[in-house]
Amino acid sequence: MCLLNVLGFTQGGRGRVVEHLVYEGSSWLGIALLAWLPWAVLRGTTTWTWVPRLIAHGAAALVFSILHVGLFILFRALAFGALGQPYDPGVAMGEYRYEVWKDLLAYAMFAGCYGMAGLLAAARPAQPEAPAAPLENLFDIRDGARLVRVRLDDILAVSSAGNYAQFHLRDGRRPLMRSSLAALETELGTGGFVRTHKSWLVNARAVRGLTPEGSGDYAVALDEGQTAPLSRRYPQALHRLRAPAAS
Predict the structure, then answer these.
(1) pLDDT cut 70: percent of the chain above it
(2) Residue 228 zone, left/alpha/beta (φ > 0; ψ -120 to 50; rest)
(3) Rounded to 5 degrees, what are φ and ψ at 214?
(4) In Å, how far are 147, 152, 164, 181 from 144, measured between CA atoms?
């Protein structure tokens, strides 16, 4: 609308066009800077009844108009001062009654658009949430006072660390849990974990290969480039990890 007003005022020479660019542009800029106000009032009064909401919007619309006039007067004074032209702010103040009706309409249009956008957003069907992992596929690592809940498939291996067990997770984390490896073997055995060494439990689903290291020992290649030992003292583990189901 501002641009159309300027284009419709091309007669009268370049000076008149620049003058009206300043007039229309300062008004547009002031409104753009105040576009947040109807949204803020709409958002802040969502739980109110209709009468208080209308009163709040009416008061905000008057504030919107006063600020708009103050802003475009400031912008015009700065612009005309830079152009070396005089500017009388009293002219705008004298036309305030004309401006206030335009500002009230602009405020109502902003509030209406924001309200319509909110209704459309509320009517949009909710996206289905991704199904949560079953609890039997999750494991709680009690790392001190902190609890780390992970998927079993994200645990590549568990190694003994003194009185603690260290979990080797897919994302590179290494949380500790005060527990014996034997207790964890009992707890995680049904989830596909295999005892490959006196100090290691390995997730059979994370195994990518076995490399002989002599004397019956193997290096177990896991996902994410990690490795774990497989001792010749655990032949059942070797048989299980070689089985097709393990891969």
Answers:
(1) 84
(2) beta
(3) 90, 150
(4) 8, 20, 11, 17
Calculate the average pLDDT of the chain. Answer: 84
Spell out the domain ranges in the chain.
2-123, 135-246
pLDDT at site 48: 87
Contacts 24+ apart (CB under 8 A), 84-90: 85/19
Cβ atoms of residues 196 and 231 within 8 Å: yes
| SS3 category, 147 | strand
- Joined tokens for residue 122: 């509320």
In whole angstroms, what is the distance from residue 138 CA to residue 189 CA?
14
Q: CA-to-CA distance for 50 and 3, rounded, in angstroms? A: 37
Domain 135-246 bears CATH identifier 3.90.1150.200: no
| H helices, E strands: number in the chain | 8, 10
| Separation of alpha carbons 241 and 247, rounded Å | 7
Give me the mean pLDDT over the 18-40 stretch.
Answer: 86
Is the pLDDT confidence value at 213 over 60?
yes
Instruction: Quote the pLDDT of residue 89.
Output: 78
